[in-house]
Specification:
The complex is a heterodimer of chains A (about 260) and B (about 400).
Chain A (H helix, E strand, L loop, with lengths): L1 H9 L1 H16 L7 H21 L10 H31 L1 H6 L6 H27 L11 H25 L2 H16 L11 H7 L3 H15 L5 H32 L1
Helix pairs in contact in A: 2-6, 3-4, 3-6, 4-6, 4-7, 4-8, 4-10, 7-8, 7-10, 7-11
Chain B lengths: L3 E15 L2 H8 L7 E15 L3 E5 L6 H9 L6 E6 L3 E4 L12 H11 L4 H15 L14 H12 L6 E5 L7 H16 L3 E5 L3 H7 L2 E6 L2 E6 L1 H13 L8 E6 L2 E6 L4 E9 L5 E2 L1 E3 L3 E10 L3 E12 L4 E6 L7 E4 L4 E9 L5 E10 L10 E12 L22
Parallel strand pairs in B: 3-7, 3-8, 5-6, 6-7, 14-21
Antiparallel strand pairs in B: 1-2, 1-4, 8-9, 10-11, 11-21, 12-13, 12-15, 15-19, 16-17, 16-18, 16-20, 20-21
Helix pairs in contact in B: 3-4, 3-5, 4-5
Classes of the chains: A mainly alpha (about 260), B alpha+beta (about 400).
Chain lengths: ~260, ~400
């Protein structure tokens, strides 16, 4: 464990320059550059806001207007976007870098760290944009916003733990990649991002309770939109779950890292 | 480990294949007794390499060369045995891995050095050298996508060799662009060697191995077959290829302190004697430049054969072929030979060779087709020396009869 951390520290320059490279590869030659980073979640939010609130007249039960629903969506998207990106990219990070892994010697843990790093940067930009939109709508988040950094760290850590485990398994059993693609799609709809939990039948609400992302997304919405504290009790369980997942990911990584190269 | 750069002890590599892929996960969890199929690609490899030594690794495709190099480099771990490496290993197997088209040559070089684990300060220090070695001028600060493939390779080689490693692994397949840059690269490799870097060189090219390596190792189907002087190992490699991978029929015998004679073939016929005679018919071992000599090959059959041909090739000290021929091509084959017959082939020529040491390898064979196999291949069958006793002083490996006229106005 300590040796992994030491390797990460020794390769910090490489990790940082890889993240930079990734962005310049993606946006270096486009005119809008970094704006594209957040375009996808923003457009998605706008579409949901338009379709769901205009066509189906979804409202927040607390009696907010159209605008507050958009903010609710934005808060959920902020949480979902980074979670989905980290899981999706960790899933294929070893497969995509197979030539690097096979031909060069370097700490392999750098690869998931690089994709997570770039996802985090993207998410921070999205955070800035989201907060700006909040201000534009005249909805300044209250004091509970101080919990947001903690929620973000927890969300990202959960995604990293899950992503690394799935990424390793995917090297050996490629079906994992396809299954996860579908599972993420389902998870999006099983998480109250575009709807409010009270709007669905109680029987389904029970299913939601088993979705760890439910509480995280709720936390984001609470501190950003409703200025209420995050759901602490479930979140403490999720914190424990996250730590377990991260530990498991490290164990699995140490066990598998030799064999990854052999099957790539 | 004081003067040993690399020590490989009983190394083997197996790729494990599980009946069900998820059995692998069970195995990680500590479950034993899963029947996994072991696929050994290397077995019981042991050798050591001294500091500053250059060793060639020879073998057919699939012999396990790449796997061995990967194990030494450290990208994959040995299933059994131990590999001890003194110092940093750098492998030039494929250039430009991890390069990104949007970055400039300089940024890519920095990025690549970071991937090798060097610190910012170390990288900054060698950057001017890298830029100079790559010789691509202002392009060094242009995005890589604007480069020709040759330019990319130049930058890649320059950064890959910016730091002198203790062990350098070079794959022959490495192409480094035009001839001039190639020479520069080999020069760099020689420089490293002079400074004490150990070289591991993988190649099918005898010339490159002979000129770069002190020693060679032959691998076949994952097994260690032989180590020895590059020429000896290469002869055996040749036998392995011709025999379709059955080195067992080959016999080796020491004929000089640094040369072993290799004999292989199906043995329907064999070479009994080989020697040079001069114009008056006396046996000679030292041949004078330009002298008329006859190479006598005396062959005896062990079994009746339909066709019998003799072939020989003269090689210089470095193993370069000087001259080779086959009686088949001259329509001089002997037909329907009974068992126990003796046949003498006599080849008379002027020894228009430069002074030096030469060796002759011989083959007794049914036809000129290598694939039909040899009755016997023997190399070197004869060693001889050429001295200049009668001609004017000259250099080079061949004597070209001169008629000189000088005009002066």
């Amino acid at each position: 464990m300590l040796s992994i951390l030491r390797a990460i520290w020794r390769y910090r320059n490489f990790i940082l320059s890889s993240i930079r490279t990734e962005f310049s590869n993606r946006f270096g030659r486009s005119r809008l550059g970094a704006l594209w980073m957040v375009m996808f979640p923003l457009v998605q939010t706008a579409l949901f806001a338009l379709v769901l609130s205009a066509a189906y007249s979804v409202r927040l039960p607390e009696g907010g207007g159209k605008g507050s629903y958009a903010l609710y969506l934005l808060a959920g998207m902020l949480a979902w976007a980074v979670f989905a990106e980290i899981v999706n990219r960790c899933l294929t990070v070893f497969i995509e870098n197979s030539s690097l892994l096979k031909k060069l010697v370097f700490p392999r843990i750098c690869l998931p760290i690089i994709v997570c790093g770039s996802a985090i940067v993207t998410n921070l930009v999205l955070l800035v944009v989201t907060l700006s939109i909040f201000f534009l709508f005249g909805s300044v988040p209250g004091l509970n916003i101080i919990w947001l950094p903690f929620l973000m760290v927890l969300n990202i850590a959960l995604a990293i733990g899950l992503g690394i485990i799935l990424g390793i398994l995917n090297v050996f059993v490629r079906d994992v990649g396809h299954v996860v693609g579908i599972a993420l799609q389902m998870m999006f709809w099983l998480t109250p991002i575009v709807y409010v939990p009270s709007a669905i039948p109680p029987a389904y609400q029970r299913i939601l309770q088993f979705n760890p992302l439910y509480y995280l997304v709720q936390g984001y919405q609470n501190v950003m939109v409703f200025d209420t504290p995050p759901p602490w009790l479930p979140l403490s369980i999720i914190t424990a779950l996250t730590i377990t997942l991260l530990g498991l990911a490290m164990l699995l990584f140490r066990r598998a890292s030799e064999e990854i190269v052999d099957v790539l | 480990m004081s003067d040993i750069a690399l020590k490989v002890t009983g190394v083997g590599k197996s790729y494990r294949r599980y009946k069900r892929e998820w059995h692998r996960f069970l195995a990680w969890a500590g479950v034993t007794g899963l029947n996994a199929e072991e696929n050994w690609v290397l077995r019981q490899i042991s050798f050591s390499v001294a500091k500053g030594e250059a060793v060639g690794i020879i073998g057919q495709n699939g012999a396990g060369k790449s796997t061995l190099l990967k194990l030494i480099t450290g990208t994959t771990r040995a299933t059994e045995g131990q590999i001890e490496v003194a110092g940093r290993v750098s492998a030039l197997l494929e250039l430009g891995i991890g390069f990104s088209p949007e970055l400039t040559g300089r940024q890519n070089a920095i990025h690549s050095a970071g991937l090798m684990g060097f610190s910012r300060a170390e990288i900054e220090r060698v950057m001017p050298e890298v830029e100079e070695f790559a010789e691509i001028g202002p392009y060094f600060d242009q995005p890589l996508r604007t480069y020709s493939s040759g330019m990319t390779v130049r930058v890649a080689f320059a950064i890959a060799t910016a730091f002198r490693p203790e062990i350098l692994i070079v794959d022959e397949a490495l192409s480094v662009g035009d001839a001039r840059f190639q020479i520069k690269c080999f020069e760099k490799i020689r420089q490293f060697r002079a400074l004490g870097t150990t070289l591991l060189f993988v190649s099918h090219d005898l010339g490159a191995i002979l000129s770069l390596c002190d020693r060679a190792i032959l691998l076949d189907k994952g097994n260690f077959i032989k180590e020895g002087s590059p020429q000896d190992v290469y002869d055996l490699y040749h036998a392995v290829i011709v025999e379709g991978g059955k080195p067992s029929t080959a016999a080796q015998e020491k004929i000089a302190p640094d040369r072993t004679q290799l004999v292989y073939g199906t043995r329907e016929a064999e070479l009994e004697d080989i020697f040079f005679v001069d114009e008056v018919g006396d046996r000679v071992e030292i041949v004078s430049v330009g002298a008329r000599v006859t190479l006598v090959m005396s062959v005896r059959t062990n079994k009746p054969v339909v066709q019998l041909n003799a072939a020989y090739v003269i090689s210089d000290r470095l193993g370069n072929y000087v001259f080779g021929m086959n009686t088949c091509d001259w329509q001089m084959q002997v037909e329907n030979v009974a068992a126990g017959e003796r046949i003498e082939f006599r080849f008379t020529f002027s020894a228009n060779l430069g002074p030096g040491f030469y060796s002759i390898a011989t083959a007794i064979l049914p036809s000129a087709l290598l694939t039909e196999g040899n009755y016997e291949w023997r190399g070197p069958a004869l060693l001889f020396q050429v001295v200049n006793t009668s001609k004017e002083k000259f250099i080079g490996c061949s004597w070209l009869e001169q008629e000189i006229s000088v005009g002066r106005n």
